[in-house]
Write a structure and sequence with these properties.
The complex is a heterodimer.
Chain A: E1 3-13, E2 26-37, E3 42-47, H1 53-60, E4 68-73, E5 76-77, H2 83-90, E6 93-96, H3 100-103, H4 110-120, H5 126-136, H6 153-165, E7 171-175, H7 183-200, E8 203-208, H8 211-217, E9 220-225, E10 228-234, H9 235-240, H10 245-253
Parallel strand pairs in A: 3-8, 3-9, 6-7, 7-8
Antiparallel strand pairs in A: 1-2, 1-4, 4-5, 9-10
Helix pairs in contact in A: 4-5, 4-6, 5-6, 6-7
Chain B: E1 5-14, E2 18-28, E3 33-37, H1 44-52, E4 59-68, E5 71-72, H2 78-88, E6 89-92, H3 96-99, H4 106-117, H5 122-135, H6 141-145, H7 154-166, E7 172-176, H8 184-201, E8 204-208, H9 212-218, E9 221-226, E10 229-235, H10 236-241, H11 246-254, H12 270-287
Parallel strand pairs in B: 3-8, 3-9, 6-7, 7-8
Antiparallel strand pairs in B: 1-2, 1-4, 4-5, 9-10
Chain lengths: ~260, ~290
């Protein structure tokens, strides 16, 4: 198992309701999640806004520290690991962000952006690794000298992917990475991701609000609602025979590009 | 009966001459919903902005006609044009949070148009706003009128903007990606609401969206845009069953559908992009003096 997550809880102080003196009340964001991510799996995490999808992803990468439960990554308990101990592990877990414009430094060239994590991890032969990463995401090598604003949305997202895979991680978290893209670029990015998962043997957690995208890409799916898992299972089964009422609501609400769909 | 909104050969350019809209023509009849679809940068929103006279300063209409209720807006003096647009057309914007003023209560934001522009009395306007909030299914409308935007959910805010858009009984509403910022379950409620309100009030609706799924649920007719040029005009059902232009077919093929997980993820092929680019260039050559 790549990830074993048991009774994961996370709460944050609600500063809008903090009394003048004393502690702020806490908001429960994740309310006891238990699931596993097997090696090589593509796990879809779906839910409405505010359901805790992104918080779950950030807890899995230990960008946030859980307040309860445990997270085991490759057999090691990382629930409360200190930042210094986490750093070497970060080479194994990378993230692709939603908005490539704000997650790529506008003042650095693409080559420098992709090289960033390689420097942090103290790699050698960085130049060659950057070019290799560009090859793998299907961008011309000359793009290393361009700035993010010179690229289209789909190309920028490829740079985000290149940065994540340059370290050859075992696990990648992709948080709503196609929601800002046009359908054509979306199709390209999803196809690319599918290829990389196959070629590099990646394990992928794919956060999305779009059930159609999840259906296409993920072999397991987890449905979140208000910080709880309402349903999880193999994607095909979950779509064919949704058990939770919320999953059915989500599926029923999707407008399919089909004038004959019953959408009542 | 002629269409309520008729756009003829509308050309909009960036100052310096770069074309943004290329001889766009379309009709929207009263009680009909016309979709504008295309990828980002295709000029969908610019058509709506040109009609409402809210184009960014850097853009200008260089030729064409926009007939609203039998009057060519572009032939009117600026002040008269804005008065006419204000009295007959309204916008449902994309992002309900930025469209509402965060430091004013919701009520005055709905009634302002009626009081300031149409000269209603404050009490008439408030009665009308309460009635509209009920019509868009907002519970406890009197309380909501006194609320600030941040106290309400995204779906509620969008309902308020729909109520505001319908407040002066406009003949034309332009909805610019009205559900893009919402969850699918909320999107469904809001789309239904817009469709119900539109049908009940007999409004002509110009619906800008990038989501072909949404188009198939709300539109009667549509135009597909690429680089500011109308690539295909179609009745909705015909578009989904027999799209004519290769670019339309490619857009449909790139749209994922959970009912067809194996198919439906083909990016627009390079050959199709080259073909539409050629059509756009041909158009520009013909348009050049």
């Amino acid at each position: 198992m790549m990830y074993q997550i048991k009774d994961l809880q996370l709460s944050l102080p609600d500063m809008t309701r903090k009394p003048l003196l004393g502690a702020a009340p806490r908001i429960e964001i994740l309310r006891g999640l238990t699931f596993d991510v097997p090696q090589g799996a593509v796990l879809g995490i779906v839910g409405g806004s505010g359901s805790g999808k992104s918080t779950l992803g950030r807890a899995m990468l230990r960008l946030l520290e859980p307040t309860g439960g445990s997270i085991t990554f490759n057999g090691q308990d990382i629930t409360h690991l200190a930042e210094d101990d986490l750093r070497p592990m970060r080479a194994q877990m990378q993230m692709i962000f939603q908005d490539p414009m704000s997650s790529l430094n506008p003042r650095r060239r693409v080559g420098g952006i992709i090289a960033g994590p390689l420097h942090v991890q103290g790699h050698e032969g960085i130049g060659a690794k950057v070019l290799e990463a560009l090859d793998m995401v299907g961008l011309p090598r000359s793009f290393a000298n361009r700035y993010p604003h010179e690229l289209s949305g789909g190309q920028r997202q490829r740079v985000g992917i290149a940065r994540a895979i340059a370290l050859r991680p075992e696990f990648i978290l992709a948080d709503e990475i196609v929601s800002g893209l046009d359908v054509s670029s979306q199709a390209q990015v999803l196809n690319l991701l599918q290829e990389l998962v196959r070629e590099l043997g990646l394990t992928l957690a794919f956060i999305s609000h779009d059930m159609s995208v999840i259906r296409r890409l993920c072999d397991r799916t987890l449905v979140l609602y208000r910080g709880e898992i309402v349903e999880q299972g193999p994607t095909a089964a979950l779509f064919a025979n949704p058990q939770a009422a919320y999953t059915r609501d989500l599926l029923d609400a999707i407008p399919l590009p089909d004038p004959d769909q019953v959408w009542a | 009966m002629s269409a309520y909104l008729q756009i003829r050969n509308l050309c909009v350019t960036l100052k310096g001459g770069i074309p943004i809209l290329r001889r766009v023509s379309l009709d929207v009849a009263a009680g009909q919903v016309h979709g504008l679809v295309g990828e980002s940068g295709a000029g969908k929103s610019m058509i709506g902005k040109a009609v409402l006279g809210t184009l960014p300063r850097a853009l200008q209409v260089t030729r064409g006609e926009i007939w609203l209720d039998g009057v060519d807006l572009l032939s009117l003096p600026a002040r008269e044009r804005q008065r006419r647009i204000g009295a007959t057309a309204a916008l449902i914007p994309q992002d309900p949070l930025t469209a509402l003023n965060p430091v004013r209560r919701v009520g005055p934001q709905i009634t302002r148009r009626l009081v300031d522009i149409l000269g209603w009395s404050r009490s008439d306007a408030e009665a009308r706003a309460l009635h509209l909030l009920e019509e868009v299914q907002i519970p406890d409308p009197a309380r909501v009128m006194r609320s600030y935007p941040h106290e309400l959910s995204g779906g509620m805010r969008q309902r308020i903007l729909i109520a505001a858009a319908f407040s002066a009984e406009p003949k034309l509403i332009i909805a610019d990606e009205p559900t893009t910022a919402l969850d699918v379950t909320v999107q469904k409620q809001i789309l239904r609401l817009i469709a119900d309100m539109q049908a009940r009030h007999g409004t002509a609706l110009l619906f800008v969206t990038h989501d072909l799924g949404v188009v198939s649920k709300v539109c009667d007719t549509l135009s597909v845009l690429y680089a500011g040029k109308v690539i295909e005009d179609a009745r909705m059902r015909r578009f989904f069953t027999r799209p004519i232009h290769p670019y339309s077919r490619a857009l449909l093929a790139a749209t994922p559908s959970y009912e067809d997980p194996e198919g439906a993820l083909t990016p627009v092929p390079q050959s199709v992009i080259e073909q539409v680019e050629r059509e756009v260039q041909d158009h520009d050559r013909r348009a050049a003096p």
